[in-house]
C-alpha cells in the first residue's frame, strides 16, 4: 500500500485465487486487513513469476516458516532488482537470519539485499497513520534505493548499516511481546510489564552483540521502537498469543485461534538454542521456552525470574562495563 500510494506500479503475489480476485475487484483483503480499502493501483497475481519478472524492487513479506518454501522463487528476480525483506523471525531449525538464508540459497541476489523493520503494525500503516521504520543493507546505495521507494510524509524511512542488529531486533522483540502478553494475561500490572520489556531488551542486546550486531541498534527503531509497539499494541499477534496462553489455552489452540503468523514462538526456540551455543544468559527467553513447552506455568515462570541471584544492571550488554564507574570498593 505504501509503494502504491507513492505512485509505483505495485504487484502483489497471493497464492490464493479468491484473495487475488478480492484485491483486484473490490480492493480489499478481508481476512488479513478487515475494514480497509487498499489503493486501487495494487494488482494481485497468483503466479509468483508474474510478480517477479519485471520488478525493480522485490519485497519478501512471508512468515519465516514459509521462507524455505518460497526462497527458490527469488531465482526468478530480474537482473539488478533489489530484494528487501520484512520478515521478523529466524529460519528454523538452522536458526539463521533471513538475509543469511537468502544469500546462501540464492547467491545471485546476495549483494542486492536489504531488510526493512521497525514499529509498523500493518493495520496502521495501511491507514496511513504516521509510521517510522529503518532499512538496513550492507550497501548504502541499496539502503537509499529502498528508502526512496518507501518514504513519504506518512511513512518515514531511516537507513542503517547494521543488518544483523536490525534483523535480530525485529525477530527477538517478538519473544518479549509473548512474555508481556503472558504477564498481562495474569494481570500482573504495569511494573512487571516495564521490567520484562527493559530486561528483555538487555538480553536481546546481549545475544545481538554476541552474533555481531551493534548494541546501539537495539536503542533504535528496530530495537526498542518495535519492542514498545509489539508489547503494547492491540494489534500484536505475539502479545495476544501470550494472553491466551496465560488464560490456559494450549499452544496449538492459541496458534489456531490467532490464525496468523506468531513469530515469537519459533524465535523463542531459535534464540534459546543460539544463546546456549554462544554461552549467553537469556533468562526471560528460557522461561518463556519452558512455558511454551508446557514445563512451567506462566506464574511459575515469573517467580523463577524474580528469584534469580543478584546482578549488576548493565553488565555484559556491550560497550564499556559500567562497573568501571565505581569509585569506591
Ligand atoms: N503484520 C504486521 O504488522 C507486520 C508483520 N511483519 C512480519 O511479516 C511477516 C509476515 O507476517 P504477516 O503478513 O503479518 O503474517 P500473516 O499470517 O498475517 O499473513 C501471512 C501471509 O503469508 C501467506 N503465506 C503463508 N505461508 C505461505 C507460503 N508457504 N507460501 C506463500 N504464501 C504464504 C499467507 O497466505 P495464505 O492466506 O494463502 O496462507 C498470508 O497472505 C512476519 O515475519 C511478520 O513478523 C513485519 C512488520 C509488520
Ligand atoms: O512486528 C510487528 C509490528 O511492528 C507485528 O507484530 P506482531 O507479529 O506481534 O503482530
Secondary-structure topology with pairs:
Layout: H1 2-5, E1 10-13, H2 17-26, E2 42-45, H3 48-52, E3 57-60, H4 67-70, E4 82-85, H5 98-105, E5 113-117, H6 122-125, E6 131-136, H7 140-150, E7 155-160, H8 163-185, H9 190-210, H10 221-232, H11 237-246, H12 251-258, H13 263-278, H14 283-292, H15 298-306
Parallel strand pairs: 1-2, 3-4, 4-5, 6-7
Antiparallel strand pairs: 5-6
The structure holds NADPH dihydro-nicotinamide-adenine-dinucleotide phosphate (NDP) and 1,3-dihydroxyacetonephosphate.
The site of NADPH dihydro-nicotinamide-adenine-dinucleotide phosphate has 20 residues, from helix 4.
Question: How would you explain this protein's 3D organization?
Answer:
Helix 8 runs parallel beside helix 10, helix 8 packs parallel to helix 11 (237-246) and helix 11 packs antiparallel against helix 12. This protein is α/β, with parallel strands linked by helices and 329 residues long. The mean pLDDT is 96. It is globular. The longest helix is centred in the middle third of the chain and has 23 residues, at 163-185. Helices cover 47% and strands 10% of the residues. A five-stranded mixed β-sheet has the order 3-4-5-6-7, sandwiched between helices. Among the domains are: 1-54, no CATH class; 164-309, N-(1-d-carboxylethyl)-l-norvaline Dehydrogenase, domain 2. NADPH dihydro-nicotinamide-adenine-dinucleotide phosphate binds next to helix 4. NADPH dihydro-nicotinamide-adenine-dinucleotide phosphate is lined by residues 15-16, 32, 61-64, 66, 69-70, 86-89, 120-122, 260-261, 263. Sn-glycerol 3-phosphate binds at residues 88, 118, 120, 173, 226, 236-238. It catalyses: sn-glycerol 3-phosphate + NAD(+) = dihydroxyacetone phosphate + NADH + H(+); sn-glycerol 3-phosphate + NADP(+) = dihydroxyacetone phosphate + NADPH + H(+). It is an enzyme of class 1 (oxidoreductase). It comes from Alicyclobacillus sacchari. It is found in: Cytoplasm.
